[in-house]
Amino acid sequence: MRRWLALLVAATTSLVLIALLVPLGLLVRQLVESGAVSQATAEAQSVAAVVGTADAGGLALTAERTAASSGHAITVFLPGGDVVGSPVRRSPAVELAARGRSLVAETPTGAEVLVAVQGVPGGTAVVRTGLTRQDLTRGVREVWLGMLVLGLALIGVGIFVADRLALALTRPMTGLARVSHRLAGGDLAARTAVSGPPEVRDVGLALNHLAGRISDLLAEERETAADVSHRLRTPLTGLRLEVESLSDPESAARLQARVDELERAVTSVITDVRRRSRESASCDAAEVVRERVTFWAVLAEDQDRPMELELPPGALTVAVGAADLSACVDALLGNVFAHTPEGTPFGVRLTPSPGGARLVVADSGPGLRPASGSGDLLERGRSGAGSTGLGLDIARRTAETSGGSLLLDTTPGGGAMVILELGTP
């Protein structure tokens, strides 16, 4: 855009200067010619003033002095045919001037100014002043060159000013485009600096407002998804435990399938919402883990499950949003309650690590055993206990989003141990 504006200004300025300077240049040339002719006429008239009063010698002396001072060739044609001064041939213009008419005539080498002097004995005398091409154009080239330099300088100044004005317009527009690309790439913290013309400033304010509104809507969606997750996981876990305690195996299996289907649908919806609303964030892992363990501690007390919690003394920031980390902890603790008998002890330990933080959830249950032909437990939808298989996948994706990883291991007693490595912002 800057280039097009510069070309537009250059073309416009050039047309204006051509329309102005070309006539001005022709006028300068005409003025120089008129000045040279006026000066030559004055010289011829000064010689004509002595034609009738001086003799031939005095007239020749006057012509020579005038020619020497002016640099122009001066010739006096007397009525009898005598010639005084610079020798030149008698041209048709001289013959015309001898009839009593003063005039200016062009010659192959320039021009001649002819002044008719009447009242001279014997007829009419003619005083001729010769002008060369150089006399008629003296100083014109210098003036034209100055006008050309001035025109080029004006074009350059116009282009420079246009470029500065275009830069003041394109720089904020480039910033708007850059922020738009960042927003499209998921950087919802991107904001543009409001600058430029009023219209561009309005666009910048609107884009910042839109980005803020998108962030608010995504945060609200994340909070809603987290709230739904917190509200539904505990009742589903309790319902699963109630179903497992039924005495009729056939009814228990049928209800267990329905509970699995319901949990799979709820988890899928929550996971999809979390995926759509995921954004770069950070939180205090110690605070989030403490809050979620406190939430699950009520159910652990109801089931007589001994629980151990180990947290660092201060804050431990990780590159995961609070809602994502809460859902991850809920998924891991939900697996403990869903896949271990009541009364099974478990522990949660959060410690700093070289890469950020390490979250370990371990229990004393039967451990992680993939079902026959089920493959990797970390594969989405795979489970060794008839569940949805989404819990560990949620934990894995949460760890990878922060730049960490997830590792499955066993405790010394054979129970399951999930190690979550979380990165720092």
Provide a descriptive summary of the structure in words.
There is one protein chain. This protein has helices at residues 2-48, 56-70, 92-97, 133-136, 140-184, 198-244, 249-276, 285-302, 322-339, 391-401; strands at 73-77, 83-85, 103-107, 110-120, 123-132, 283-284, 307-310, 317-318, 346-353, 356-363, 405-410, 416-423. The chain is α+β, with helices and mostly antiparallel strands and 425 residues long. It folds into 2 domains: 2-140, Beta-Lactamase (2-Layer Sandwich); 214-423, Histidine kinase-like ATPase, C-terminal domain (Heat Shock Protein 90). The chain has a 5-stranded antiparallel sheet. A hairpin with a 2-residue loop joins strand 9 (346-353) and strand 10. Helix 1 packs antiparallel against helix 5, helix 6 runs parallel beside helix 9 and helix 9 packs antiparallel against helix 10 (391-401). The chain is rod-shaped, with a radius of gyration of 52 Å.
Comma- or semicolon-separated keywords:
rod-shaped, 5-stranded antiparallel beta sheet, alpha+beta, 425 residues, 12 strands, single chain, Beta-Lactamase, 5-stranded mixed beta sheet
CATH class of the largest domain: Alpha Beta
Spatial order of strands in the largest sheet: 2-1-5-4-3
Structural class: alpha+beta
Share in β-strands: 15-25%
- How much helix, percentage-wise, in residues? 55-70%
Order of helices and strands: HHEEHEEEHHHHEHEEHEEHEE
Q: How many distinct beta strands?
A: 12
CATH fold label of the largest domain? Heat Shock Protein 90
Oligomer: single chain
SS summary, helix count: 10
What is the CATH homologous superfamily assignment of the largest domain?
Histidine kinase-like ATPase, C-terminal domain
Q: What would you report as the Rg, rounded to the nearest angstrom?
A: 52 Å
Low-confidence stretches: 371-376, 380-388
How is the main sheet built? 5 strands, antiparallel
Average predicted local confidence, pLDDT: 84
N→C terminal distance = 39 Å
CATH A-level architecture of the largest domain: 2-Layer Sandwich
